[in-house]
């Protein structure tokens, strides 16, 4: 790996996913109680005092109906250039070369967003109607008018995160398997990165049906919990085997302990709008458009017929 790529990966260690380098060594996830319930974490400052924090419970009864245009993805189907996996001490993170500009827009997003990195949480951070899934993937982007994720984090809606949930299934996920194989070299060494030799594409980590999702505005889920994130969390989940979930838990933290979980507790939604976009809404909207077209065609045919009668 070239010098530029190595420098880029080191920079990511300090700015992603927690953004603020001063927080990197000063926080950890609380240990589970004997009953398995996770206690509230106390990371201070904005993490404790903010009113637009993430994650939240994505409850359809608390949501409002939304219809947005389809998402547009640029180069999500291209191999990630110089993909490398990094043990941040809090997660497994995959970085790309900074020269590669993979973009997402549409889907009701307020701008065009540039891919920065993706990382995993086990179990899921967001819950849907109170249910937690096994793993959650966060694909992190910054708004295109900013030069970096750190700069975008200081601005409202400067960051867009795509959240994908994984349910436990009988068969392993082949794309997750590539991540886990590469992680063997870094899992016991915080700050170490390893090139991923097999091709990875962002589209492989997205649900095929992307028409149903929740949208709300919140924060990063790690210190300093900047409230600058436009969240998209799809309701369609991807499979992962229980054996793969257990392998995530062998990642070592800065204290040399296995990171058995790395999810933040859900926060109050408060007065924020939670928008639910349903695939059925999209189909219904399409049916309405088709109906209008058919009515217009019928009217045109009828009008032409009248002209023929009177001419």
Automatic annotation (TrEMBL):
GO terms for cellular component: cytoplasm. It comes from Culicoides sonorensis (Biting midge). One of its GO terms (molecular function) is carbonate dehydratase activity. The keyword Signal applies. The keyword Signal applies. Residues 25-278 form the Alpha-carbonic anhydrase domain. SUPFAM superfamilies: Carbonic anhydrase (SSF51069). Pfam families: Carb_anhydrase. InterPro entries: CA_dom (IPR001148), CA_dom_sf (IPR036398), Carbonic_anhydrase_a-class (IPR023561). Keywords: Signal. This is CSON002938 protein. Transmembrane segments: none annotated. The lineage of its organism: Eukaryota, Metazoa, Ecdysozoa, Arthropoda, Hexapoda. CDD domains: alpha_CA. The gene is CSON002938. Residues 1-21 form the signal peptide. Belongs to the alpha-carbonic anhydrase family.
């Amino acid at each position: 790996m070239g010098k530029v790529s190595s420098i880029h990966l080191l920079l990511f260690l300090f700015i992603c996913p927690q953004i603020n380098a001063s927080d990197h060594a000063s926080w950890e996830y609380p240990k589970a109680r004997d009953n398995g319930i996770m206690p509230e974490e106390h990371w201070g400052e904005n993490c404790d005092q903010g009113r637009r924090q993430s994650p939240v419970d994505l409850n359809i009864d608390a949501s409002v109906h939304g219809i947005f245009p389809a998402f547009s993805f640029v180069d999500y189907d291209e191999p990630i250039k110089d993909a490398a996996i990094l043990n941040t001490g809090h997660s497994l993170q995959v970085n790309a070369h900074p020269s590669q500009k993979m973009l997402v827009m549409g889907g009701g997003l307020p701008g065009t967003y540039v891919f920065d990195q993706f990382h995993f949480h086990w179990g899921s951070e967001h819950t849907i109607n109170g249910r937690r899934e096994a793993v959650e993937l966060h694909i992190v982007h910054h708004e295109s008018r900013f030069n970096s994720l750190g700069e975008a984090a200081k601005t409202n809606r400067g960051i867009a995160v795509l959240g994908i949930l994984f349910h436990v299934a009988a068969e392993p996920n082949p794309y997750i398997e590539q991540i886990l194989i590469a992680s063997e070299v870094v899992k016991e060494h915080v700050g170490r990165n390893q090139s991923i030799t097999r091709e990875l594409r962002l589209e492989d980590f997205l649900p095929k049906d992307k028409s149903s999702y929740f949208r709300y505005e919140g924060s990063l889920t790690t210190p300093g919990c900047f409230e600058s994130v436009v969240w998209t969390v799809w309701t369609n989940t991807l499979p992962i085997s229980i054996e793969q979930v257990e392998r995530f838990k062998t990642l070592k933290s800065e204290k040399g302990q296995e990171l058995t979980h790395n999810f933040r507790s859900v926060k109050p939604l408060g007065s924020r709008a939670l928008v639910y976009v349903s695939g059925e809404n999209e189909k219904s909207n399409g049916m309405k458009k088709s109906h209008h077209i058919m009515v217009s065609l019928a009217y045109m045919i009828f009008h032409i017929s009248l002209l023929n009668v009177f001419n």
